[in-house]
Amino acid sequence: MDVAAFVEANKGAFFADLKEWLAIPSISGDPARADDVRRSAEWLANYLRGLGFPTVEVWETGGLPSVFAEWPAADPEAPSVVVYGHHDVQPVEPLEEWDTDPFVATEKGDRLYGRGTSDDKGQVFFHTLGVRAAMAAAGTDAPPVTIKLLVEGEEESGSAHFPDLLREHRDRLACDAVIISDTTMWAADVPSMCTGMRGMAEAELSLYGPDTDLHSGSFGGAVPNPLHALVSMLAALHDDDGRVTLPGFYDGVIPLTDRERELFAKLPFDEEQWLRTAGNSGAAYGEKGYSTLERIWARPTAEINGMWGGHIGPGGKTIVPREAHAKVSFRLVAGQEPERVHEAFRAWVAEHTPEGVRAEVTIPGGGVRACFSPIDSPGVLAGRRAMERAFGTEVLFTREGGSGPEADLADILQAPLVFVAVGLNDDRIHAPNEKVEMPLLLKGAEAAAYLWEELATALKADAR
After folding, report:
1. Which residues in the chain are classed under CATH 3.30.70.360?
2. Are 292 and 274 in contact (CB under 8 A)?
3. What is the phi/psi pair of residue 127, to 5°?
4. N or C: which terminal CB in the chain sees fewer CB atoms within 10 Å?
């Protein structure tokens, strides 16, 4: 039986089992649901044991548990891959906006509705069908690569304990590639692979002038105004071409290749429609010389997220305010480090703070590193071939604007990332009425089955 036939023959049981798992409300961000997150981990572990995984373990953390499973290849020299996903889900509020019970997976045509259908239980689950399809098609009882599943329990609440988990089990997780199935494709009829996710650095800027608010008639124009200083400084964050002015901000940024830009341009992108989805924004804006997709996927940015100071209540109050504040964030791309951006922002603030004003920069966290996979790398090429075999058409490339623990996986395990996923941007992840396209989950299972064969060849050749 070939891969497609096996997937078709087993789809009924696949969806029945998935619905059972989806019924567990594994909301990691709600402390009252901690037992449910544990129950979700135990359910998955028991399911994987029933499928025949020789090794299945629930890994404890300082918070909520992850699941690890391993199926060794018959050839001890075969490459090893880690498949990453997560079994925790987002909260479901506002509940009244759901058309169905979020924890009773409901079919409507080719769609399956419920929390976790797309993000990420459904996309984790297609691998369980894919590994069985690969072995059935080959007539073996072991996959062509050693497969290690790592299914996290805290991704939706910040992955606070995940880096420590990776370090603790680094030897067990040693691999030649990490497969990520927690992203999206461009469209159901335009299959694509993500090759990068932007990181982030945040900061809060506070400016202080006089010890108290002053009467603007007596002091206005004669002493520094922190709000004036703030808006001038923030306006200077970008030059006339939309480039960020922090010193060294672009040092190390990996530029887009001509081939990447060519493939991005092949995507059927309707900018007017996109602007409508962007809150009916009146125009596209950004760094000169780049398309909208290039800006949101592959170029770093600086954004003013909020600013306040002085009188904001009803009526007039003619003062020189004593202080002013702003929150800023930077979306980072491959080659940038959050710590270096924080340092650059501190230096930039020191240089631009006028005399008579005192500046304080507060950094709320360490930031998130970007991740990136070159489109000509062996793992990505293998993933693309597998996707094209499943979908029967050209697979294009995308990137995404946000990121989770992917950079930790790449850095700690020292392995390249390969994104193979079948979610869609309209799956309403994190929102009411989350759904997944059921035919796409089956295509994901096919692609996963082909992926092990493609990686076995590609990664062996790359190791030589």
Report:
1. 199-253+300-362
2. yes
3. -70, -30
4. C
Provide the pairing of β-strand 66-71 with 146-152.
antiparallel
The CA distance from 86 to 364, in Å, is 26
Query: Burial of 370 by CB count in 10 Å (0-12 exposed, 13-18 middle, 19+ buried)?
Result: buried
**Which residue type occupies 61?**
T
Write down the pLDDT at residue 460: 75
Q: Which amino acid is at 332?
A: L
Query: Per the confidence metrics, is the pTM higher than 0.90?
Result: yes
CATH code of the domain made up of 199-253+300-362: 3.30.70.360
DSSP letter (8 states) at residue 367: -
Residue 305 near residue 327, CB atoms below 8 Å? yes
CA–CA dist 170, 152 (Å, integer): 15
Looking at the DSSP bridge assignments, the partners of residue 147 are 71, 81
- Supply 339's token pair: 């710590």
Q: Calculate the CA 142 to chain-centre distance.
A: 31
- Which residues have C-beta within 8 Å of that of residue 53, sequence separation ≥ 6? 69, 70, 71, 149
- Residue 22 makes CB contacts below 8 A (sequence gap 6+) with 103, 105, 114, 115, 116, 117, 121, 122
Q: What is the pLDDT of residues 174-199, one digit of tens each?
A: 999 999 999 999 999 999 999 999 99
d(CA 230, CA 232): 5
Model confidence at 461: pLDDT above 70: no
Is residue 299 a contact partner of residue 333, using CB atoms and an 8 Å limit? yes
- How, if at all, do strands 80-86 and 146-152 pair? parallel
CATH number of 3-197+370-463: 3.40.630.10
pLDDT at 464: 52
Residue type, 14: F
Which residue intervals of the chain bear CATH 3.40.630.10? 3-197+370-463
Phi, psi of 184 (to 5 degrees): -135, 165
